[in-house]
Write a structure and sequence with these properties.
Layout (H helix, E strand, L loop, with lengths): L1 E2 L2 E2 L16 H11 L2 H14 L3 H7 L1 H9 L12 H27 L2 H20 L4 H29 L5 H26 L7 H7 L2 H11 L6 H6 L3 H12 L3 H20 L3 H4 L6 H15 L3 H14 L4 H29 L1 H27 L10 H19 L2 H12 L2 H33 L2 H20 L12 H5 L16
Antiparallel strand pairs: 1-2
Helix pairs in contact: 1-7, 1-8, 2-7, 2-8, 2-16, 3-4, 5-6, 5-7, 5-21, 6-7, 6-9, 6-10, 7-8, 7-20, 7-21, 8-9, 8-17, 8-20, 12-13, 15-20, 15-21, 16-17, 17-18, 17-19, 18-19, 18-22, 20-21
């Protein structure tokens, strides 16, 4: 059936095969764009390390410093329980949540690369403010700027990668975004480890100011990135879109004709939808809407950001010294990077569902083991005098295996799958929902974790293990496989699914 007078590609043909392979040009542009993940990753990694540095705590959070450094009898679970301290970490995510709605409009009307440019520029301003901070107010303002930058980048980059990549390699190229997040975390851990040794108490300024480096890279590189063919069509540039599609696929005009016609039809359907925020509530978009909410929700309730935000404090809590805790966080950061490479290889080879399910089972098992071991030594009192090295090493090993499972499953796929399942007419709005849900629950987890650790003790890890079990069952029953399906043909996976097909009309109605 026609949509707005054009054939609608969203009826979906899973057997459609577009010519084209990975070209050097598309590889370079996708890798550069994916580096937008560096700013998000650097911030996740830097926050926990900085908040474990004594000079930083002395200047901005003296009560936490006194509790952590001077009161040796304090319950190990509660040493870092401070509303102000967690607000420093989590304020970024509220700003990112709000910014994602503005970024949705910018991404649709002005293009994906403009959103990346704005995100990098605002993040750069936030890094400068944080490095120069003299009080908590400056810290929070800087974090808000950082959050706006993250909101814009996380809105634009996954869409950019999904639209530029050949459909058979869309998963692998999109996972490079998550790889850059993990590299950002690793770099931040290295920076924290080195700056913690700096004399004069200014190491934390170097750590926070270091965020300016990836931000500056994004600002400059976004000026040279091309727009995607989809974005060009949204701006009424069909000839430029055709030429760009030909260039990134590396084939002739005749060979790109089928893909171009489908993208053009999707673009016309998109233009016919004047109110995407209203339309996204329509019945035929129900599966995508549910996924855009539940996937980022579940991603945060794996508990991964608890590990990445607060790894240094967590390792201090289980008996590591200052430098040892930062070094242990560095180890988990390295595991995170290496395991994400597994996902780059396997996403388009083994499929999204396999990695989701395997990763979920592995995370569940090792979260339970962490719970058992922390509960064994710390109990509910949190008082411990001596931890054997083998014990501490084993807990770090369990955490590393858990991090690896996340890094090749829910980490990259939590961004990939939502970015590839939406039809063009609601794509920017739906991605905004994904980002805002992700940021909201990142904020909730970051804001409440230290308080929950204080009150729930080792039971906190059982809390997250429950959600890992729940999300694994959800994927098994409700998430269809999306590998090797062209992005404009994705409706077919919902029409053939045992549950979601009830929401899908035989043909899309006129809009």
């Amino acid at each position: 059936m026609a949509v707005g007078g054009f054939d609608n590609p969203n009826n979906g043909d899973p057997n459609k095969d577009y010519p084209g392979a990975i070209t050097f040009y598309v590889l370079v542009t996708c890798v550069i764009a994916a580096m937008g993940g560096l700013i998000f990753g650097y911030d996740i990694g830097i926050s926990g390390g900085v908040t474990s540095m004594a000079p930083f705590l002395q200047k901005f959070f003296p009560s936490v410093y006194r509790k952590e450094a001077l009161d040796e009898s304090t319950n190990q679970y509660c040493k870092f329980d401070s509303v102000k301290l967690t607000m420093f970490t989590s304020s970024l995510y509220l700003a990112a949540l709000v910014a994602s709605f503005v970024a949705s409009w910018v991404t649709k009307k002005l293009g994906r690369k403009i959103s990346m440019f704005i995100g990098g520029l605002v993040f750069l301003a936030g890094a400068i403010i944080n490095a120069a901070a003299q009080n908590i107010a400056m810290l929070i303002i800087g974090r808000i700027f950082l959050g706006i930058g993250v909101g814009f980048a996380n809105q634009a980059v996954p869409l950019y990668l999904s639209e530029m990549a050949p459909y058979k390699l869309r998963g692998s190229l999109n996972v490079v975004f998550q790889l850059c997040i993990t590299i950002g975390i690793l770099i931040a851990n290295v920076v924290n480890y080195l700056t913690s040794k700096m004399e004069g108490g200014y190491g934390w300024r170097v750590s926070l100011g270091g965020a300016a480096v990836p931000a500056l890279f994004i600002v400059v590189s976004s000026l040279f990135l091309p727009n995607t063919p989809n974005s060009m069509l949204e701006k009424n540039q069909p000839e430029k879109a055709r030429a760009m599609l030909k260039r990134i696929r590396g084939v002739s005009d005749k060979e790109i004709e089928a893909e171009f016609k489908d993208i053009l039809a999707a673009s016309e359907a998109s233009k016919a939808v004047k109110h995407p925020w209203r339309n996204i509530k329509n019945r035929q978009y129900r599966p995508q809407l549910i996924m855009s909410i539940l996937i980022p929700f579940f991603q945060q309730f794996t508990g991964i950001n608890v590990i990445m935000f607060y790894a240094p404090q967590l390792f201090k809590t289980i008996g590591f010294g200052d430098n040892a805790s930062l070094l242990s966080a560095l180890i988990t950061g390295g595991i995170n990077v290496l395991a994400t490479i597994v996902s780059i290889y396997g996403t388009d080879k083994w499929g999204r569902r396999f990695l989701f399910l395997e990763g979920g089972i592995q995370m569940f098992i090792f979260q339970v083991l962490v719970t058992v071991f922390i509960g064994w030594k710390f109990g509910v009192s949190g008082d411990v005098t001596d931890l054997p090295k083998w014990y501490a090493g084993l807990v770090v090993f369990f955490i590393c295996v858990y991090v690896a499972a996340f890094a090749w499953s829910w980490g990259p796929l939590g961004w990939l799958v939502p970015s590839e399942i939406f039809p063009l007419e609601i794509r920017s709005a739906a991605q905004s929902i994904t980002v805002s849900v992700n940021m909201f629950f990142t904020f909730i987890v970051a804001q409440l974790f230290l308080t929950m650790l204080c009150h729930m003790k080792f039971g906190l890890f059982i809390f997250f293990a429950f959600f890992v079990l729940l999300m694994t069952l959800f994927v098994y029953f409700f998430l269809p496989e999306t590998k090797n399906i062209p992005i404009e043909e994705m409706t077919c996976v919902w029409k053939s699914h045992w549950f979601w097909r009830r929401f899908m009309p035989e043909d899309r109605p006129q809009i």
